[in-house]
Write a structure and sequence with these properties.
The protein has one domain. About 75% of the residues lie in helices and about 0% in strands. It is built from 4 helices and no strands. It is elongated. The model has no long low-confidence stretch (mean pLDDT about 90).
Amino acid sequence: MTFDEIFLWAMSLFIPFILFIIGAVFQKYPPKTISRSFGYRTRQSLRSQETWNAAQELFGKYLFFLGFALLIAVPATLYCFSSAFDPYILLLIYIITESLLIVLPVLAVERYLKLHFPEQ
């Protein structure tokens, strides 16, 4: 393997690995009390302790599963496309795609909070 290939693999798997680890930590050790410095902090999640707890748990699950899915999908697509593309173009595609996918857990948690904890 060349340096470019090793770098491509390492950097392409960095974001999925971090998502997987953060998701696992949030599931195992979610922030217990409302905090403005750590945890999933949005206007919806900060409304009450009940919404805070639900948001932390759900966000951890979503990050964990997104990280896990990307840890499977990235190597599969790298294996298929690494010879067809320049490694740095492929890395750019992965970073952009992974960065956009990070929005999905936020949207899902916000939707859940809106549906299950309507504003009073």
